[in-house]
């Protein structure tokens, strides 16, 4: 089940109308141009389009171009606000209490939002792609203060504070070298899957109830719902009686989103964060050390480790994770380095295989004498076995037999 909003549909309709308007203006301008040419041929000079209409069309097209360009360059917070769906809940007294609490500690808000820098734009994209309320992108604020390595005394780990058994059920691998609950990409997908799954399975799509279950467990929430309904209430989130932490869970989330929705009103200065994802995924096919990957990408090992918190050893093994997160502007550099490394490994494998099968593949710069020496053969025999009359004519990639049989 998806949760697209009327706002998104209206935005899509407005975009379509804007595009139709642009096309109409272009067609109008082209029509006048065509008429002018025809009228000139016929001697009808009074059909020239008024300059004001042409200027107006040009002006509107230019203005629309810059408007669209501005939309594309939104910062992370603006994009997040565009996806908020629960701001009308902010007047609830429990939400207001938490707004005042966070408002009294602005330095905490700034610290946590700064810590969110590498992740918030990408997480917002994942939440938006599912049509979920943008507020859900801020769950790591409440769960872990946006610290991927956060661990609770109950055993929960990562941005989304996923428990071991829950992580196992969601397919998040754990071993001595890797913890998928701490990997931001894998844990985000798992957490959002879990929230949607519970909303569909238990609560007819009610995401607030699903968030309560995410914190307290579906069994506790379902019992509290039945109790509320027995008292004549509907059994929505605000009707529940749950442990103190869960009672505060959604109000905290809504309070944070309300502050981010209007930080100036609450005297908070959010850090500037680009609306594009700060990192890119680079596919891995062979094990590689974190230090070697960092050198290839041109970043520090510490920076690379911070982007890949699921890694618990100094080597990245594709059997645990088939991708490595790197700063977005370094991805191409790392891919080129990995391609060169792969080519080198392939050449080594070819050399080993051909040596075992009695063949040698000529590499750039090799001479017949060097090849003979390498394989402890006579240069004369090597030339005779391969029908070589001119040893200087060897070509890279040429295959030579290493025996007369």
Automatic annotation (TrEMBL):
GO cellular component: membrane
InterPro entries linked to this entry: LysM, LysM_dom_sf, Lysozyme-like_dom_sf, Transglyc_AS, Transglycosylase_SLT_dom_1
Domain LysM stretches: 358-402
Keywords: Signal
GO BP term, example: peptidoglycan metabolic process
Gene3D superfamilies: 1.10.530.10, LysM domain
Single GO MF annotation: peptidoglycan lytic transglycosylase activity
A Pfam family it matches: SLT
Residues in the signal sequence: 1-29
Family classification: Belongs to the transglycosylase Slt family.
Name recorded for this polypeptide: Transglycosylase SLT domain-containing protein
UniProt lineage: Bacteria, Pseudomonadati, Pseudomonadota, Gammaproteobacteria, Oceanospirillales
